[in-house]
Amino acid sequence: MGIVVSVAIKRLPHAADLPLPSYQTKDSAGMDLCAAISADIVIAPGAHTIVPTGYSIALPSGFEAQVRPRSGLAAKNAVTVLNSPGTIDADYRGEVGVILINHGKDSFTVTRGMRIAQIVVAPVRTVMWEEKEELLDTDRGAGGFGSTGTHRV
């Protein structure tokens, strides 16, 4: 087991019967988030919606939580997290919501308790910008999107 970080979590009334986010295997990086909804939500092809999870969290300073897609939903239904990964900052205390989008050809139904995303808690580094007139050069230089691996040595 890696480093354990204690994170306060508040169960909201509409999640009273749902499990806390949890790891599904010993070495899972993310914990599953469930839909805390009272009625099914149908997401039409090309549409998106925010699905509540029924929890608020209090991350320690220096950490973030990333809301990521579940590979099974993406592979089987073309449903994913729209702003992937979604970032939850350490000072946010509202309910964790998941923005799901349906990239599939058929409508997708979200049901109560369905595992809809994963949450990964990770350390964050604070950056102090150091403005320079010039930057150190590299072999890649200013080569942009798709520019690596196109020249043989």
Textual characterization of the structure:
This protein is mainly beta and 153 residues long. It has a single domain, classed as Deoxyuridine 5'-Triphosphate Nucleotidohydrolase, Chain A (Distorted Sandwich). 5% of the residues lie in helices and 35% in strands. The chain has one helix and ten strands. The strands form three sheets. A four-stranded antiparallel β-sheet has the order 1-4-8-6. Strands 2-10-5-7 form a four-stranded antiparallel β-sheet, with no helix packed on it. The longest helix is centred in the middle third of the chain and has 7 residues. It is globular, with a radius of gyration of 19 Å. The mean pLDDT is 94.
The separation of the N and C termini measures: 42 Å
User: Which class do the helix and strand fractions yield?
Assistant: mainly beta
Strand content range: 35-45%
The topology string of helices and strands comes to EEEEEHEEEEE
Tell me the major beta sheet. Answer: 4 strands, antiparallel
Instruction: Please tell me how large the radius of gyration is.
Output: 19 Å
